[in-house]
Amino acid sequence: APFYLIDLNLQGINRFTQLADDSKEVPNLQRKTYSAFKLTQHEWLNMAGTSKFDSLSTSITSGLDNVSKWYRKTNDTDVYFVCLALDPNYKVAYAKAKWASRDFDDGMRQLKDVVSSWVSQ
């Protein structure tokens, strides 16, 4: 896309955000970050189970099922853990802190196997 279209889109987004922030009818978005709006899987499931969100319940559960399916796909290859461990922004410390110990141990085993095969070549 031509760059001027990108600039027009950004101007439109900025204008919309300003109008939303000035409105008393919508939540103020100023100084908000993505983390202020994200929900946990448990919160999504609770929302899907309430009558207020009946019309969205099927979509919410389908979305969660899809995320779960692709999340489990990371177990099918050693590449995910190896890339995470080698990424200077995460390294092994992130996985050790955030992953279940069994999953972390499996990842470390995969990393050692990959490094061993590289060294032996």
Helical fraction equals: 55-70%
SSE string, helices as H and strands as E: HHHHHH
Sketch the major β-sheet. none
Number of helices: 6
Describe the global form. Answer: extended
Tell me the β content.
Answer: under 5%
SS class: mainly alpha
pLDDT under 50 segments (min length 5)?
Answer: none
Mean pLDDT level = 81
Q: Got a strand count?
A: 0
N-C termini distance? 45 Å
Radius of gyration: 21 Å
Description:
The termini are far apart. Helix 2 (41-48) runs antiparallel to helix 3 (54-73) and helix 4 packs across helix 5 (91-98). The longest helix is centred in the first third of the chain and has 20 residues, at 3-22. With 121 residues, the chain is mainly α. The mean pLDDT is 81. It has 6 helices and no strands. 2% of the residues are buried.
Write the SSE topology.
Elements: H1 3-22, H2 41-48, H3 54-73, H4 79-86, H5 91-98, H6 101-119
Helix pairs in contact: 2-3, 4-5
